[in-house]
Amino acid sequence: VKVLVTGASGGIGRALADVFADSGADLVLAAHRNRAALDAFVAGRPWRARAVTVEVDVTRPATLVAPLAGVDVCIANAGIGPPEEVPLHEMSETRIRSVVEVNLVGALFTARAFLAELARAGARPAGASLVFIGSTAGRFGEAGHAEYAAAKAALTGLMLSLKNEIVRLDPRGRVNLVEPGWTRTSMVDLEVEAGAIERTLATMPLKRLAEPEDVARAVLWLASPDARHVTGQVLTVAGGMEGRVVPA
Ligand SMILES: NC(=O)c1ccc[n+]([C@@H]2O[C@H](COP(=O)([O-])OP(=O)(O)OC[C@H]3O[C@@H](n4cnc5c(N)ncnc54)[C@H](OP(=O)(O)O)[C@@H]3O)[C@@H](O)[C@H]2O)c1
Hints:
Blueprint: E1 2-5, H1 11-22, E2 26-31, H2 35-43, E3 51-55, E4 73-76, H3 93-121, E5 129-133, H4 137-140, H5 146-169, E6 174-180, H6 194-201, H7 212-223, E7 234-237
Parallel strand pairs: 1-2, 1-4, 2-3, 4-5, 5-6, 6-7
Bound molecules: NADP nicotinamide-adenine-dinucleotide phosphate.
Protein backbone atom coordinates (compact mmCIF):
# COMPACT_ATOMS: atom_id res chain seq x y z
CA VAL A 1 0.00 0.00 0.00
CA LYS A 2 1.29 3.44 -0.93
CA VAL A 3 0.28 6.29 1.37
CA LEU A 4 0.64 10.04 0.77
CA VAL A 5 0.64 12.38 3.77
CA THR A 6 0.50 16.15 3.28
CA GLY A 7 1.90 18.22 6.12
CA ALA A 8 4.27 15.33 6.88
CA SER A 9 6.88 17.73 8.28
CA GLY A 10 4.51 18.68 11.11
CA GLY A 11 3.77 16.98 14.41
CA ILE A 12 0.75 14.91 13.39
CA GLY A 13 2.29 14.26 9.94
CA ARG A 14 5.40 12.69 11.47
CA ALA A 15 3.29 10.45 13.70
CA LEU A 16 1.26 9.44 10.65
CA ALA A 17 4.51 8.54 8.86
CA ASP A 18 5.59 6.36 11.79
CA VAL A 19 2.33 4.44 12.23
CA PHE A 20 1.76 3.84 8.50
CA ALA A 21 5.41 2.77 8.05
CA ASP A 22 5.06 0.37 11.01
CA SER A 23 2.02 -1.13 9.29
CA GLY A 24 4.24 -1.93 6.28
CA ALA A 25 3.19 0.90 3.93
CA ASP A 26 5.33 2.72 1.38
CA LEU A 27 5.25 6.45 2.04
CA VAL A 28 5.18 9.66 0.03
CA LEU A 29 5.79 12.36 2.63
CA ALA A 30 5.02 15.93 1.60
CA ALA A 31 6.50 18.98 3.29
CA HIS A 32 5.89 22.57 2.34
CA ARG A 33 8.52 24.96 3.76
CA ASN A 34 10.33 22.47 6.02
CA ARG A 35 11.54 19.80 3.58
CA ALA A 36 15.04 19.77 5.10
CA ALA A 37 13.64 19.07 8.58
CA LEU A 38 11.45 16.30 7.16
CA ASP A 39 14.46 14.76 5.37
CA ALA A 40 16.43 14.80 8.62
CA PHE A 41 13.53 13.11 10.46
CA VAL A 42 13.18 10.41 7.78
CA ALA A 43 16.95 9.78 7.71
CA GLY A 44 16.76 8.68 11.35
CA ARG A 45 13.86 6.24 10.93
CA PRO A 46 14.24 2.47 10.43
CA TRP A 47 11.71 2.62 7.56
CA ARG A 48 13.56 5.30 5.56
CA ALA A 49 14.10 3.03 2.52
CA ARG A 50 10.31 2.82 2.05
CA ALA A 51 9.77 6.60 2.06
CA VAL A 52 10.27 9.42 -0.41
CA THR A 53 9.88 13.08 0.49
CA VAL A 54 8.44 15.73 -1.79
CA GLU A 55 7.63 19.43 -1.65
CA VAL A 56 3.95 20.28 -1.98
CA ASP A 57 2.02 23.52 -1.58
CA VAL A 58 -1.61 22.41 -1.28
CA THR A 59 -2.75 25.83 -2.51
CA ARG A 60 -0.90 25.16 -5.82
CA PRO A 61 -2.61 22.17 -7.41
CA ALA A 62 0.15 21.51 -9.96
CA THR A 63 2.49 20.52 -7.09
CA LEU A 64 0.13 17.66 -6.09
CA VAL A 65 -0.01 15.77 -9.39
CA ALA A 66 3.31 13.86 -9.47
CA PRO A 67 3.36 12.98 -5.73
CA LEU A 68 -0.05 11.26 -5.99
CA ALA A 69 0.93 8.84 -8.78
CA GLY A 70 0.19 5.28 -7.65
CA VAL A 71 -1.09 6.34 -4.22
CA ASP A 72 -3.75 4.10 -2.56
CA VAL A 73 -4.31 6.08 0.65
CA CYS A 74 -4.32 9.89 0.75
CA ILE A 75 -4.18 11.76 4.06
CA ALA A 76 -5.07 15.46 3.65
CA ASN A 77 -3.36 16.65 6.82
CA ALA A 78 -1.68 19.96 5.87
CA GLY A 79 -3.07 22.93 7.76
CA ILE A 80 -2.32 26.21 9.46
CA GLY A 81 -3.85 27.63 12.62
CA PRO A 82 -2.68 31.01 13.91
CA PRO A 83 -2.51 30.71 17.73
CA GLU A 84 -3.66 34.27 18.57
CA GLU A 85 -7.31 34.57 19.57
CA VAL A 86 -8.76 37.35 17.41
CA PRO A 87 -12.48 38.19 17.25
CA LEU A 88 -13.76 38.10 13.69
CA HIS A 89 -14.59 41.82 13.65
CA GLU A 90 -10.91 42.56 14.26
CA MET A 91 -9.41 39.83 12.06
CA SER A 92 -7.30 40.81 9.05
CA GLU A 93 -8.37 39.94 5.54
CA THR A 94 -4.95 38.32 5.03
CA ARG A 95 -5.44 35.92 7.97
CA ILE A 96 -8.97 34.96 6.89
CA ARG A 97 -7.93 34.32 3.30
CA SER A 98 -4.76 32.38 4.11
CA VAL A 99 -6.39 30.10 6.70
CA VAL A 100 -9.32 29.26 4.42
CA GLU A 101 -6.95 28.86 1.47
CA VAL A 102 -4.70 26.27 3.13
CA ASN A 103 -7.22 24.38 5.31
CA LEU A 104 -10.19 24.27 2.95
CA VAL A 105 -9.09 25.08 -0.60
CA GLY A 106 -5.90 23.07 -0.01
CA ALA A 107 -7.96 20.04 1.10
CA LEU A 108 -10.16 20.44 -2.01
CA PHE A 109 -7.11 20.48 -4.27
CA THR A 110 -5.55 17.49 -2.48
CA ALA A 111 -8.77 15.49 -2.85
CA ARG A 112 -9.16 16.57 -6.47
CA ALA A 113 -5.66 15.39 -7.34
CA PHE A 114 -6.24 12.03 -5.61
CA LEU A 115 -9.58 11.44 -7.36
CA ALA A 116 -8.01 12.43 -10.69
CA GLU A 117 -5.30 9.84 -10.06
CA LEU A 118 -7.99 7.20 -9.40
CA ALA A 119 -9.77 8.23 -12.61
CA ARG A 120 -6.47 7.87 -14.48
CA ALA A 121 -5.15 4.63 -12.99
CA GLY A 122 -8.32 2.86 -11.85
CA ALA A 123 -9.56 1.14 -8.67
CA ARG A 124 -7.09 0.07 -5.98
CA PRO A 125 -6.79 -3.59 -4.86
CA ALA A 126 -8.01 -2.95 -1.30
CA GLY A 127 -10.14 0.09 -2.21
CA ALA A 128 -8.80 3.65 -2.25
CA SER A 129 -9.05 5.61 0.98
CA LEU A 130 -9.09 9.37 1.54
CA VAL A 131 -8.90 10.79 5.07
CA PHE A 132 -9.22 14.49 5.90
CA ILE A 133 -7.85 15.98 9.11
CA GLY A 134 -10.39 18.42 10.50
CA SER A 135 -10.58 19.80 14.03
CA THR A 136 -12.89 19.94 17.01
CA ALA A 137 -12.97 23.67 16.18
CA GLY A 138 -15.17 22.71 13.22
CA ARG A 139 -17.49 20.68 15.44
CA PHE A 140 -17.88 22.84 18.55
CA GLY A 141 -16.77 26.22 17.19
CA GLU A 142 -13.89 28.17 18.67
CA ALA A 143 -14.12 31.83 19.68
CA GLY A 144 -11.12 33.78 18.41
CA HIS A 145 -10.56 31.26 15.62
CA ALA A 146 -13.76 31.60 13.57
CA GLU A 147 -11.95 31.47 10.22
CA TYR A 148 -10.21 28.20 11.17
CA ALA A 149 -13.41 26.68 12.58
CA ALA A 150 -15.31 27.59 9.40
CA ALA A 151 -12.68 26.05 7.13
CA LYS A 152 -12.52 22.84 9.19
CA ALA A 153 -16.34 22.54 9.46
CA ALA A 154 -16.56 22.76 5.67
CA LEU A 155 -14.51 19.57 5.41
CA THR A 156 -17.57 17.65 6.63
CA GLY A 157 -19.60 18.66 3.57
CA LEU A 158 -16.64 17.94 1.33
CA MET A 159 -16.15 14.48 2.85
CA LEU A 160 -19.87 13.63 2.64
CA SER A 161 -19.94 14.60 -1.05
CA LEU A 162 -16.80 12.73 -2.01
CA LYS A 163 -17.85 9.47 -0.36
CA ASN A 164 -20.51 9.32 -3.07
CA GLU A 165 -18.14 10.40 -5.86
CA ILE A 166 -15.21 8.10 -5.09
CA VAL A 167 -17.23 4.90 -5.66
CA ARG A 168 -17.77 5.89 -9.29
CA LEU A 169 -13.98 5.64 -9.67
CA ASP A 170 -13.34 2.79 -7.21
CA PRO A 171 -16.39 0.80 -6.03
CA ARG A 172 -14.68 0.09 -2.70
CA GLY A 173 -13.27 3.59 -2.27
CA ARG A 174 -13.91 5.37 1.06
CA VAL A 175 -13.71 8.92 2.42
CA ASN A 176 -13.67 9.83 6.13
CA LEU A 177 -12.72 12.69 8.44
CA VAL A 178 -10.71 12.65 11.67
CA GLU A 179 -11.24 15.59 14.03
CA PRO A 180 -8.44 15.95 16.58
CA GLY A 181 -8.87 18.10 19.65
CA TRP A 182 -5.91 19.98 21.13
CA THR A 183 -2.83 17.96 20.19
CA ARG A 184 0.74 18.48 21.37
CA THR A 185 2.45 19.82 18.20
CA SER A 186 4.12 23.05 17.12
CA MET A 187 0.69 24.29 15.98
CA VAL A 188 -0.34 24.69 19.59
CA ASP A 189 1.43 27.52 21.39
CA LEU A 190 1.16 26.36 25.01
CA GLU A 191 1.78 29.87 26.34
CA VAL A 192 -0.49 31.85 24.03
CA GLU A 193 -3.29 29.29 24.29
CA ALA A 194 -2.97 28.21 27.93
CA GLY A 195 -6.35 29.65 28.93
CA ALA A 196 -8.21 28.04 26.04
CA ILE A 197 -6.57 24.67 26.70
CA GLU A 198 -7.54 24.83 30.39
CA ARG A 199 -11.17 25.65 29.51
CA THR A 200 -11.24 22.78 27.02
CA LEU A 201 -9.74 20.25 29.46
CA ALA A 202 -12.58 21.14 31.85
CA THR A 203 -15.00 19.65 29.28
CA MET A 204 -13.00 16.43 28.76
CA PRO A 205 -13.20 13.22 30.82
CA LEU A 206 -9.72 12.24 29.60
CA LYS A 207 -7.83 15.23 30.97
CA ARG A 208 -4.81 15.55 28.72
CA LEU A 209 -3.87 16.96 25.33
CA ALA A 210 -3.73 14.34 22.59
CA GLU A 211 -0.33 13.13 21.49
CA PRO A 212 0.18 13.12 17.70
CA GLU A 213 0.28 9.31 17.83
CA ASP A 214 -3.27 9.22 19.30
CA VAL A 215 -4.52 10.95 16.15
CA ALA A 216 -2.33 8.90 13.81
CA ARG A 217 -3.60 5.57 15.17
CA ALA A 218 -7.21 6.59 14.51
CA VAL A 219 -6.31 7.59 10.95
CA LEU A 220 -4.46 4.32 10.41
CA TRP A 221 -7.52 2.31 11.42
CA LEU A 222 -9.91 4.36 9.26
CA ALA A 223 -7.63 4.03 6.24
CA SER A 224 -7.06 0.28 6.74
CA PRO A 225 -9.10 -2.66 5.42
CA ASP A 226 -10.31 -3.18 9.02
CA ALA A 227 -12.61 -0.19 8.34
CA ARG A 228 -13.60 -1.41 4.89
CA HIS A 229 -17.35 -0.78 5.49
CA VAL A 230 -16.84 2.61 7.14
CA THR A 231 -17.24 5.66 4.90
CA GLY A 232 -18.66 9.14 5.24
CA GLN A 233 -17.86 9.23 8.97
CA VAL A 234 -16.38 11.75 11.36
CA LEU A 235 -14.12 10.27 14.04
CA THR A 236 -13.35 12.70 16.86
CA VAL A 237 -10.09 12.09 18.75
CA ALA A 238 -10.41 14.49 21.65
CA GLY A 239 -10.65 12.62 24.97
CA GLY A 240 -14.45 12.81 25.04
CA MET A 241 -14.53 16.62 24.70
CA GLU A 242 -18.03 18.10 24.96
CA GLY A 243 -17.15 21.60 23.76
CA ARG A 244 -15.85 24.45 25.77
CA VAL A 245 -16.99 26.50 28.69
CA VAL A 246 -18.54 29.55 27.09
CA PRO A 247 -16.06 32.40 27.48
CA ALA A 248 -17.29 35.69 28.86
N1 LIG B 1 -2.24 20.41 16.87
C1 LIG B 1 -3.54 20.52 17.14
O1 LIG B 1 -3.94 20.81 18.28
C2 LIG B 1 -4.56 20.24 16.08
C3 LIG B 1 -5.89 20.12 16.49
C4 LIG B 1 -6.88 19.88 15.54
C5 LIG B 1 -6.52 19.73 14.22
N2 LIG B 1 -5.22 19.85 13.82
C6 LIG B 1 -4.93 19.71 12.40
O2 LIG B 1 -3.97 18.69 12.20
C7 LIG B 1 -3.24 18.94 11.00
C8 LIG B 1 -1.74 18.85 11.29
O3 LIG B 1 -1.40 19.84 12.24
P1 LIG B 1 -0.14 19.77 13.23
O4 LIG B 1 -0.66 19.96 14.59
O5 LIG B 1 0.71 18.60 12.92
O6 LIG B 1 0.57 21.15 12.83
P2 LIG B 1 2.06 21.50 12.40
O7 LIG B 1 3.04 20.74 13.22
O8 LIG B 1 2.11 22.98 12.39
O9 LIG B 1 2.13 20.95 10.89
C9 LIG B 1 1.44 21.58 9.84
C10 LIG B 1 1.88 20.96 8.53
O10 LIG B 1 1.15 21.55 7.44
C11 LIG B 1 2.07 21.89 6.43
N3 LIG B 1 1.59 23.00 5.62
C12 LIG B 1 1.27 24.27 6.01
N4 LIG B 1 0.90 25.01 4.95
C13 LIG B 1 0.98 24.20 3.86
C14 LIG B 1 0.76 24.37 2.48
N5 LIG B 1 0.35 25.55 1.97
N6 LIG B 1 0.95 23.32 1.65
C15 LIG B 1 1.35 22.13 2.14
N7 LIG B 1 1.60 21.90 3.43
C16 LIG B 1 1.42 22.93 4.28
C17 LIG B 1 3.36 22.23 7.15
O11 LIG B 1 4.46 22.10 6.24
P3 LIG B 1 5.89 22.85 6.45
O12 LIG B 1 6.15 22.88 7.94
O13 LIG B 1 6.85 21.99 5.69
O14 LIG B 1 5.77 24.22 5.84
C18 LIG B 1 3.37 21.17 8.24
O15 LIG B 1 3.91 19.96 7.75
C19 LIG B 1 -3.68 20.34 10.52
O16 LIG B 1 -4.65 20.20 9.50
C20 LIG B 1 -4.31 20.94 11.76
O17 LIG B 1 -5.26 21.93 11.44
C21 LIG B 1 -4.22 20.10 14.73
